[in-house]
Amino acid sequence: MEFFSRRARTIAPYTAGEQPKSGIFVKLNTNENPYPPSPRVAEAVAAFPCERLRLYPNPDGDSLRDAVAAFEGVERENVYLSNGSDEALALAFAAFFDDVRAACFADVTYSFYEVFAAMFGVTTRIVPLKEDFTLDIAGMRAADCAGYFIANPNAPTGIATAAEEMEKWIASMPERLFVIDEAYADFSGETCVPLTEKYGNLLVVKTFSKSHSLAGIRCGYAVGAPALIGGLMRMKNSFNSYPVDALCMAVCAASLSDRAYHEETVKRVAEERERLKKGLCGLGLTVLPSRSNFLFAGRGKVPAGEIYARLKAEGVLVRHWNKPRIADFCRITVGTPEQDDILLEKLKIILS
Ligand SMILES: *Cc1c(COP(=O)(O)O)cnc(C)c1O
């Protein structure tokens, strides 16, 4: 500690979900996709010319920016690439917020936001979700802030705010910046990306980690007006000017090229989500209406913390937070039907 900066001494880092070393767990705790990436990814890796690794990649990742732009229906200048979408979110805090320009977000949302704010000395305004865990938009409108971080669908609740409702809000507050974290939006069937053409105060952040089954490659992107992308570029070029490597670019472009596979995988997960939800409700659990690839379930006969521990002892990992408002819920990633059946079987015993 004696060598630590004040920031390093005082910051409370983000705690990621457990990544067990053994493969014996049914792993439903970090919202990874249960299905493999597109076969085109394996082909791209096999065909990758390793000789190219001798050279630095294009600093802005232009080849992948073009692939993302084509996939999202925007232009290259509207796309910023990052090493995981977490990095784009972090740099958005640094680029657009500070001690005077406060960032507003919900009390129950992606817990990395408060860590990034602390990291970059950003003032925060925390507005609690409503009783039913939906966004308190009126409260957030009234907050004294320069803009918002909104996970949509939200984590860990899975609840989505309709794009139409987001648009009304974005249109009515052009002086505030909206950073919408769409890590799970592919599973909801709704996105605010098309709104970025119309609104210069909107940045949408997406990731390859969830719907593309590429959490291991560490790539994400932001879509927005060129001025906003320029702000992120300024921060990148002051921090790590080559955040996306050459192999990553080839892998992610291959995944984007296989739209049919992506749509099919997303559909399978979304359908299984509804089946798993029925199963959980049938066991007497309250399950929030999720539009993501996970379910937030609890308020059953057995406290959620105990459910988490007993599932873990039985080889099934889910996520639990000992935090106000959400301590009686577990977040359960939608797995394959086989994985989910194991979970339901174990839960049935625990809850009986
Ligand atoms: C998983 C997740 C991310 C994405 O993380 P990556 O760094 O892209 O793997 C971003 N936001 C939320 C809310 C998430 O759950």
CATH topology of the largest domain: Aspartate Aminotransferase, domain 2
Low-confidence stretches: none
> By CATH's scheme, which homologous superfamily of the largest domain applies?
Type I PLP-dependent aspartate aminotransferase-like (Major domain)
Rg from C-alpha positions? 20 Å
- CATH top level label of the largest domain: Alpha Beta
Bound molecules: pyridoxal-5'-phosphate
Number of E strands = 13
Question: How can the largest sheet be summarized?
Answer: 7 strands, mixed
The ordered H/E elements are: HEHHEHEHEHEHEEEHHHEEHEEEH
Number of helices, where a helix is a run of at least 4 consecutive DSSP H or I residues: 12
Architecture (CATH level 2) name of the largest domain = 3-Layer(aba) Sandwich
Lateral arrangement of strands in the main beta sheet: 2-8-7-6-5-3-4
Describe this entry's structure for a reader.
The chain has 352 residues and is of the alpha/beta class. The protein has two domains: 15-36 and 268-351, Alpha-Beta Complex (Aspartate Aminotransferase, domain 1); 39-257, Aspartate Aminotransferase, domain 2, CATH 3.40.640.10. It contains twelve helices and 13 strands. It has helices at residues 6-10, 39-47, 62-72, 85-96, 112-119, 137-142, 163-172, 226-236, 246-257, 259-282, 304-313, 337-351, and strands spanning 26-27, 79-82, 103-106, 124-127, 147-151, 177-181, 202-207, 220-224, 286-287, 294-298, 316-317, 319-320, 329-333. Strands 2-8-7-6-5-3-4 form a seven-stranded mixed β-sheet, with helices on both faces. Helix 2 runs antiparallel to helix 9 (246-257) and helix 4 crosses helix 5 (112-119). The mean pLDDT is 97. Bound molecules: pyridoxal-5'-phosphate.
